[in-house]
Amino acid sequence: AQTVTQSQPEMSVQEAETVTLSCTYDTSESDYYLFWYKQPPSRQMILVIRQEAYKQQNATENRFSVNFQKAAKSFSLKISDSQLGDAAMYFCAYRGPTGANSKLTFGKGITLSVRP
Amino acid sequence: KAGVTQTPRYLIKTRGQQVTLSCSPISGHRSVSWYQQTPGQGLQFLFEYFSETQRNKGNFPGRFSGRQFSNSRSEMNVSTLELGDSALYLCASSLVGPTTETEAFFGQGTRLTVV
Fold first, then answer.
1. B32, burial (CB in 10 Å: exposed 0-12, middle 13-18, buried 19+)
2. What is the least distance, in Å, from the CA of A17 to any CA of chain B?
3. Could you read off the pLDDT of A66-116 as tens digits, one per residue?
């Protein structure tokens, strides 16, 4: 079974600084997808970034980028120029190959606070 | 384009009762998944429906059931409610094609409290 591990329950970052959130996963599949979701106090899960395992290039979305290390099964999220609105819970998630099913396996999440 | 809509947003039920939660996916999305979120267990997968068929199921007791209608709307039912069923229930939809699949888009959730 696939597992996703986020070992840091909480992190804090100064506004305008950079922070990296860690995630490791375990799977026997070669084709899969990884995601970072943000959950603010409103509880709405918002997709931050998506990475396809077959792509060697790390995904980037504005201030958000990932460091995807397939061999090490590591998928960290880097937030640059942190803003107060980035404060939220962040979940790393795994999904298997397209066509199998749409099940997401989530990590426990990390609470990110941003200091003004 | 409307997002994923879950109703109701909040529910308070008594132990032993049953409850039905509703989810309307994004137009065109045929895959609907349900998740339970609690402080202790985090986000756990309940089940997924695709084209009115249950495609995958998580490790929950049979008290938890669901269905999907021809318009892709989905309902989740919990019978004989227990205190431990108090949670945020999240629904997500995705667009599934022969070789592609979008990411999951989530609704705002239904907060169920069992007293």
1. buried
2. 28
3. 999 999 999 999 999 999 999 999 999 999 887 667 789 999 999 999 999
Say if the Cβ atoms of B58 and A103 lie within 8 Å: yes
Residue of B nearest to A5 (CA): B42
- In chain B, what is the straight-line distance between the N-terminal and C-terminal CA atoms, in Å? 37
Looking at residue B84, the DSSP 8-state letter turns out to be: G
CB atoms under 10 Å from CB of A56, counted, come to 8
Mutate to test the interface with B, among A7, A35, A45 (most CBs of B within 10 A): A45
Give the closest of B42, B94, B109 to A43, CB-based: B109
Tokens 């819970």 — which residue? A89
Judging by beta carbons within 10 Å of its beta carbon (0-12, 13-18, 19+), is residue A22 exposed, middle or buried? middle
* CA gap A85, A83 in Å, rounded: 5
Give the pairing of strands B74-78 and B19-24: antiparallel
**What's the pLDDT at A23?**
98
CB B72 within 8 A of CB B30: yes
B33-64 pLDDT, tens digit per residue, is 999 999 989 999 999 999 999 988 999 999 99
Checking if the pLDDT of B99 tops 70, the result is no
Q: Is A55 on the interface with B (CB under 8 A)?
A: no
How far apart are alpha carbons B46 and B31 in whole angstroms? 14
